[in-house]
Amino acid sequence: MMLRVRSRDGLERVSIESPQITVSQLKTLIQSQLRIPIDNQTLSTNQNLLLAKTPADLLKFTDMVNHSTPLSALNLSHGSIVFLAYEGKRTVSGPAFHPSDYSKHNTLY
After folding, report:
1. For every residue of the chain, which 3-state class applies, written as one string?
2. Measured between alpha carbons, how far is 96 from 109 in angstroms, rounded to an integer?
């Protein structure tokens, strides 16, 4: 089964074994697959999580606070989106990007 995780970095996918896993197990999978430490993660099914500006704002999102809640109890299934806010920086893998020198390829007359 696959869940989509939307964060400030964009949309990423996390593979999970079954919808019966708990929020705590999902956080562990996010840590191993997306390299975001568990202690830095705030999860919610509410997209407004991504608009939170302060730590106090993050406390308003309580739907995934109970770590023993199964994902199925949150109506999460294959392809569902979970929203993720986290503290700190991380390196996101992606295609290599090498900007070209504009002046070498385009001559203005």
Report:
1. CEEEEEECCEEEEEECCCCCCEHHHHHHHHHHHHCCCHHHEEEECCHHHHHCCCHHHHCCCCCCCCCCCEHHHHCCCCCCEEEEEECCCCCCCCCCCCCCCHHHHCCCC
2. 32
Residue 5 in contact with residue 34, Cβ under 8 Å? yes
pTM of the model: 0.80
Degrees to nearest 5, angle at CA 77 with 74 and 80: 90
Q: Which two tokens stand for residue 58?
A: 């993050």
Report how far residue 21's alpha carbon sits from residue 82's, in angstroms, rounded to the nearest whole number: 14
Encode pLDDT of 2-48 as tens digits. 999 999 999 999 999 888 999 999 999 999 999 999 999 999 999 99
Side by side, the strands of the sheet bearing 2-7 are 10-15, 2-7, 81-86, 41-44
Q: What are phi and psi of 69, to 5 degrees?
A: -70, 125
